[in-house]
Design a protein that fits this description.
By secondary structure, the protein is an all-alpha fold. It has helices at about 10-25, 35-45. The chain is elongated and about 40 Å long.
Amino acid sequence: MKPFDIRFDILFIRFYLMMAVIIGSFFAGVPYLAVLGLPIFLSALLGIRFNKK
């Protein structure tokens, strides 16, 4: 795990994934599942890169 080492396209993918999780949880009628968007938001904000190098 390496912080602040992320490509710009991965940042956008994580942002849209976060929005899909949050909006999807409200459309499904389970708003407390929107909390699952928080780790995605933090990984995008911090630029954390997940790889085995």
